[in-house]
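The aim of this short unit is practical: by the end, you should be able to scan a pair of folded records and say something sensible about each. We start with the first protein, listed as its amino acid sequence and then its structure tokens.
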Amino acid sequence: MKKLIILAAAATAIAASPAAAQWVPGRWNATTFWQGAPANPYERIQFLQDRVNRGVASGSLNRREAWRVNNELNGLRQWVRRMHWQTGSLTPSQQARVQARLDQISSQIRWMRHNGR
């Protein structure tokens, strides 16, 4: 009987270990996410691109999710180029819109990496 209880306790501990190591849901925070990231919009887009590549390499993003994010990032690159070409540089309101879009894409990546949790 004592062996059975010890085995049950050990099985519970082993089964609970992966659950304890899993991602804990929380709110995405733009301030902490972009800390230490480049300020240039093109470099920030590349920063997210690198994040997607790491996600695919680690298996936390599948190819379809990566393809979807890559399309979003490519569209954002084109949008930034058009705005930059039209005005010669990005205005503060354009920079804010680009940053808001980068925040949305980063949040999407986070959601996909954690399978919607």
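Turning to the second protein, read its sequence before its tokens, just as you did above.
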Amino acid sequence: MESGAQETAATTCAQCGAAADSGRIFCANCGIPLRAPTALIAPTGPAPTKRKWISVKWTLVATVLLLGYFAWQCGSGISAGARLSDDAVRHFHALLDSEKYGQIVDESDEAFQNSGSRDETLKFLSGVHSKLGASRGFTRTNIVVNATTRGTFIRVSYKSTFDQGDAAETFTWTKTGDRLKLFNYQVNSNVFVTR
């Protein structure tokens, strides 16, 4: 028991030399710390920050919403392009059936008008009509909408039925406001070979 009493009295202040109990943190005489403070709760490692997780979650939500918006815009752009193209093809076939080839050229894009001489283009359209006959209907098979710095281009493929047989038609349109102008026209049919 005496050795325990010596232990408690053995601590002295390094500043003033006053005796202090070993359980004391500060010197009773001068107030200087007698020992380094110890943590009341031992650290277990860095705690995950709640703020970081909230930030990650909102970033993911914003990304999903942004991607959803772009997908919706692309879908509505293709849908609008398909509707406009179907209307333009009906108009094209009506002009072709009524042999108004000059009006087809006049209503087309400048690039189509300048792709060859006007006479050659009129002969080509006349030849298509004379070989295939009147239009009986069409089914859209493919559509590609391409927005560029030069404008929006809509390329649409159709399986078309005419009096003399079927044909595969590909129309490339330029979009000007709510109207489409013919930029390129391609047509393939076995009727061209057999008739």
